[in-house]
Amino acid sequence: MREGQVIVGLDVGTTKVCALVGECRDNGVNLIAIGSAPSHGLRKGIVVNIEATVESIRTALEEAERLSGISINNVYVGIAGGHIKSFSSYGAVGIKSGEVTDEDIEKALEAAKAVYVPLDREVLHVLPLEYLVDGEEGIMNPVGMAGVRLEARVQIVTGSVSAVQNLVRCCEKAGVQVNDIVLEPLASSIATLTDNEKKEGTVLIDIGGGTTDIALYKRGVLLHTSVIAIGGNHITNDLAIGLRLPVQEAERVKMKYGSVISSGGIENDARIMVAGRDEKVIPRSYITEIILPRCEELLGIIKTELEESGAYDEVSYGVVLTGGASQLEGLAVLGEATLGLPVRVGLPRGFEGPPGLAGDPRYSTGIGLLLYGYTAETPPIMRGDVFSSILSRMKEWVKGFLKKKTFKGIFLEEGGLHEFRH
Ligand SMILES: Nc1ncnc2c1ncn2[C@@H]1O[C@H](COP(=O)(O)OP(=O)(O)OP(=O)(O)O)[C@@H](O)[C@H]1O
Ligand SMILES: [Mg+2]
Q1: Cα angle, residue 177 at apex, residues 175 and 182 outer, rounded to 5°
Q2: Strand-pair partners of 90
Q3: Cα-to-centroid distance, 353 and ligand 1 (Å)
Q4: Domain count, the chain
Q5: CA–CA separation, 232 vs 325, rounded Å?
């Protein structure tokens, strides 16, 4: 990215759409403005209503343009949802000159990419996990190493073509081109995890409104990711039903008084006013009694998911919670008890900007999209090119597969540690 160039991260979430405008500086990204709008067109992280989503994107973009004074024409957009799947793949090449070059790495990655991807799936990311030189494992940067055989292990992340197309279509209808589509847990972890956490083994848990995204990092690479279709909205609904309140009031009560700490004390004995059909006064502890089981359930599902995928054993450092619902009082403490791991709440970091702007965990994905855009080499796509670009990317893959399917070093390892789950 060139100094002065503007990048826009567009986080199309289940509860809000936000557009973050950043300016590239020599030493990083300077956040200029955030435009935000309530989101009504998504369910469980996936676009289910094009018109409503377009409207939200348009409103968020307009606000971002007004606040920044910059006209936005392309964005890095995040994608999540249960349709995301990943698998690991492997490719090998001979090292021509006896010393690994960038070209050898590219070829090894190409070989690893040459696997069958069903036509209804779009490849979102090819993430190198490690390289092997003459069978020696665990090499992250093999350039310059001596050897005769280079192998690459990668994780290939795919999404359903229709979900990707619907998201792209919404952006286009709202008047912007899509530079790249980025996996949301990947974006959130770019913004919240330290290098040390990524190296030592950390799980990022982004609890949004409709979904909880999980990403496991170890040895500096993304090893596992999955999406659970439970988020803060479920807690709000529980409160609405339990206290017989309209959803909007339940949301207010949750944000203001929500807590999972049930150990009594003056705060928990406090009586609060809620406005249903009639106004009534309830003890604050009622709220905890309703919220706590849902949070325990969610954390329990996360633990099972981590254990079943094998990821739990890789978490030697701890857990980072982010996303709007991570602000629920006491959630980190409950997380430590349920998951049996150290837990901290992760705020977005790694950018400059006015104090307080994007200072809360709802913006982790948006900031991550900006930081991804800052380091990405993806050339901007011209208006109208996006579908053909997706198609041509798919064609490239099919072509690559046909060309290389006789290649002996390729195998496709499905399931296990690298499988996304719903
Ligand atoms: N202070 C708070 N305390 C408790 N919950 C909160 C607080 N602030 C926001 N939330 C909850 O966070 C959720 C929204 O989080 P976020 O903005 O990360 O979601 P999203 O990105 O729109 O959705 P998703 O990522 O699931 O598509 C809502 O359920 C909201 O009630
Ligand atoms: Mg989100």
Answers
A1: 125
A2: 153, 411
A3: 23
A4: 2
A5: 5
User: Do 155 and 200 share a domain, yes or no?
Assistant: no
CATH number of residue 95's parent domain: 3.30.1490.110
Q: Is ligand 1 within 6 A of the CB of residue 208?
A: yes
Find out whether 375 and 182 touch, Cβ atoms under 8 Å.
no
Type of residue found at 397: W
Q: How far apart are CA 15 and CA 365, in angstroms?
A: 13
* Residue where a domain stops, chosen among 319, 346, 373: 346
Q: Is residue 49 in some structural domain?
A: no
Residue type, 26: D
Residue at a domain's end among 346, 361, 384: 346
CB 15 less than 6 A from any atom of ligand 1: yes
Buried-exposed string 273-312: b where 16+ CB fall within 10 A, e elsewhere: ebeeeeeeeeebbbbbebbbebbeebbeebbebbeebebb
Two tokens, residue 48: 């289910």
What is the best residue among 167, 182, 237, 362 to mutate for testing ligand 1's pocket, by most ligand atoms within 8 Å of CB?
A: 362
Residue 196 lies in a domain: yes
Which two tokens mark 168? 């792209």
Summarize pLDDT for 25-77 with one digit per residue, the tens. Answer: 988 999 999 999 999 999 989 999 999 999 999 999 999 999 999 999 999 99
And the tokens for 170? Answer: 């919404």
For residues 197 and 271, membership in a common domain is answered with yes
Q: Which ligand 1 atom sits closest to the C-alpha of 15? A: 22
Please report whether residue 80 resides in a domain.
Answer: no
DSSP E strands in 39-81: the ranges are 42-43, 46-47, 74-79
* Beta strands 411-413 and 177-183, pairing class: unpaired
Selection from 325, 271, 367 nearest residue 19 by Cα: 367
Q: Please give the single-letter amino acid code of residue 15.
A: T
Q: Return d(Cα 418, Cα 366) in angstroms, integer.
A: 25
The answer to whether position 230 is within a domain reads yes
Residue found by looking up tokens 């990022």 in the block: 204
Task: Please tell me whether residues 228 and 123 are part of one structural domain.
Answer: no
pTM over 0.85: yes
b (16+ CB within 10 A) / e for 394-417: beebeebbeebeeeebbeeeeeeb
pLDDT band of 4, cuts 50, 70, 90:
confident
* Residue range of the domain that includes 155: 85-159+398-418
> Mind listing the pLDDT tens digit for each residue in 407-421?
222 222 233 333 333
